[in-house]
UniProtKB/TrEMBL annotation:
Name used for this protein in its record: Fis family transcriptional regulator
GO terms assigned for molecular function: ATP binding; sequence-specific DNA binding
Cleaved signal peptide residues: none
Keywords assigned by UniProt, alphabetized: ATP-binding, DNA-binding, Nucleotide-binding, Transcription, Transcription regulation
The keyword DNA-binding is annotated on this UniProt entry: yes
A Pfam family matched in the record: HTH_8
Organism phylogeny: Bacteria, Pseudomonadati, Pseudomonadota, Gammaproteobacteria, Lysobacterales
Amino acid sequence: MGVQGLEASTRSLAWFGTPDPQMHRALAQAGWRVVAIDPCGDDAAAMIRGIDAWVALVEFDAETPLRLVEQLASQHPEVQWLALVQPDELAKPAVRDLIRFAFFDYFTPPLDVGQLGLALGHAWGKARLGRVDGAPKAVDLDGMVGASRAMHALALRIRKFVPVDVAVLVTGETGTGKELAARTLHRLSARASGPFVAINCGALPEKLVQSELFGHERGAFTDAATRKIGRIEAAHGGTVFLDEIGDLPLEAQANLLRFLQDGTIERVGGHQPIRVDARVVAATHVDLERAVAEGSFREDLYYRLNVLRLHMPSLRERNGDVELLAHHFLDAFRREHGTRVRGFTQAAKDAMAAYPWPGNVRELMNRVRRAAVMADGPLITPAHLELAEPDGMLPAFSLESARDSAERDMILDCLRESRFNVSECARRLKVSRVTVYRLCKKHGLARSRTSSADGP
Ligand SMILES: Nc1ncnc2c1ncn2[C@@H]1O[C@H](COP(=O)(O)OP(=O)(O)OP(=O)(O)O)[C@@H](O)[C@H]1O
């Protein structure tokens, strides 16, 4: 899909539940691309962003995970939410309140396709009003660039967090921009003229963690010939960024908790509490909830850090951002090194769009910079980016690639129809579950979408 294009996108409807086939067909005829999403699936939120849906319908029955729906609706106010709700459910105050406060409209079964079509049209129109010119504008939040809805939502969240001077926890895969988000928070805040001190907790030698973070007094230990100011104290008046917070040893976690609670630290070997005014932004790419459950991360520290949370979406979830960022990095490289390279061939754009970017924005930046060095002419090709030519661009379209692509589409369609339940999908395709898992792996289909109670 084009970077700028609401028009280019079909009208996608995220359907949390299972639309009946007749309804599905009727909506498809009316121009809707209906994507069924398992409301209990791990990546329900990612899917809304991934399919670029601006309208969602949630089926409410006794099984519906209310908290999850609440969370989705509050995280995605730009989506217009509709409900298909069983009369029994509507009698429940929690369901009624959720629909009253967060939903555009609701229906009780039987669902009338004409009525639904009208409501969807209105909801779509309302969603468009939230976008300038009906198209997503690129955001550039102090060097943090993107045009996807995920980036718009993130920028909004960062702006909200700027004036609230409490700790922030940034989560997300490697290379998604966690440190950049922390720097942006700092630069936009009243602390901008103070220091920004970044520490990679995972890279500190275990023995030195306490002294690095909190400093030490002269003679505190054998090598402590002079007093040393710790990194947190060095951030006085500014922001301290604690990367890989999950790697902090338990002892240092206790001291950090104390700092977060009363704003004081104690240098190693010192007995005086020292007041330090620094905002803590912590980042992790590991699951801290799991670390808490396993006892390697303090629960009280986790709750203290988790007040304001920023989740950095993976590049795969940022519809439209790859091309925009690629140009952004190429322009920056040209300004710095004055290369003759001006842009990307269509094949390069297609190859970038098809690639899953496991290293996220950092990988994209590195590939573009390398390509800018390697390219001889004005345009970067897939070969310069060291990416495979996208299937459609292969000089000779082979029978094997056609088979592959048909197989992938079939698995994906079947998984969606089975609400990402692997057993159900295996039954429908008349293969074993192991085969379904193998094919998911082969075609790079996210296994997290498949129901977790359903291992191979
Ligand atoms: N939205 C963006 N716009 C422009 N540059 C970006 C964006 N996101 C990330 N970058 C750049 O990508 C690189 C990687 O970002 P960053 O170091 O912040 O990621 P990270 O999530 O902290 O990575 P890690 O988990 O590996 O430490 C940096 O050079 C950063 O400036």
